[in-house]
Amino acid sequence: MGSKYMDNYTFEEIKNEIAILKKSFFQVRLVDPNACQIMEPAKVNGKFTLIPSGVCYDTWFHPDQCINCTSSRALRTDQIHSKCETCNDKLFYITARPVRIENHPLVLEIVQPMSYPDICPGNSEENTLLSQFRSLNRKILLDSETSAYNREYLAEHLPNIFSEVQEHRTVNAALIHLKSYDNIQETYGSVAASGVICRLYKILQTTLSLTDCPDTILARYENDTFFVLDKSHTYTQLCSCIRLIQKQSATQHILYQSQLLPFELESSTVSLNTEQICDSKQLFSLLLERLSSSDSPQ
């Protein structure tokens, strides 16, 4: 991470800078992380334009946006960020630097392969090293208590979701709130509260069929609240699924110090397409409003 670094380049300046960087680095490219597109600056009929030339995550053979998307983080924070990425059993170091090209915010990605002898004693440790970096890229965006995605993940991936909504892909979302969480925390302590929230996470995982399902995101929005974003079902199907979760949870209890700790859930849902949700602020304002008034359209 570095200090704020949003330089504004002209078309000719960025062309020259990329040409110089390409002499020293394996790959240099401009990326729009909100759309997950590699962008090529060009002049068409004398006018500056950006031409999409491919999906950025295809480079790493990922099915969708990288879990640890440093370019999204760089654009969001207006700071330089970096990470290590693995591909075909090779390790790459990536620097993501936010820039403006003719006042268009983008990210300049610089990619360089890493030599194993430079970073570990022997080649016998290569597989362990690659595994550690893959794990780290996930771990920093997971909630440490439940293993759901965290708020940082949402901040970096929702802009791409809104881009998909603009392309008319079906996207629905929900908040699921554990009403009894604060009472359990105050009465029985953090261990009991942790047990209940982790049980709820497992119920959500099972009911939403989240195993190997890239079209559904489950994140911990607050200590007592999970956020669900679903691209594989209709709005009616998601609402039915949420109702099923609430019904199942009514019979779930954790026995703690001879006391039954109940699940008391409330939820809210939205259709991003039908309700023309276009940013995170609008999305969560509507979900929280419906949660507080129990006025979710289901």
UniProtKB/TrEMBL annotation:
Q: Would you indicate the residue range of the signal peptide? A: none
Domain annotation GGDEF: ranges: 142-266
Alphabetized SUPFAM superfamilies for the sequence:
Nucleotide cyclase (SSF55073)
Matching entries from InterPro entries are given as: GGDEF_dom, Nucleotide_cyclase, Rev_trsase/Diguanyl_cyclase
Q: Name one Pfam family in it.
A: GGDEF
| Membrane-spanning intervals of the chain | none
Q: What is this protein called?
A: Diguanylate cyclase
Q: Which organism is it from?
A: Roseburia porci
The root-end lineage is: Bacteria, Bacillati, Bacillota, Clostridia, Lachnospirales
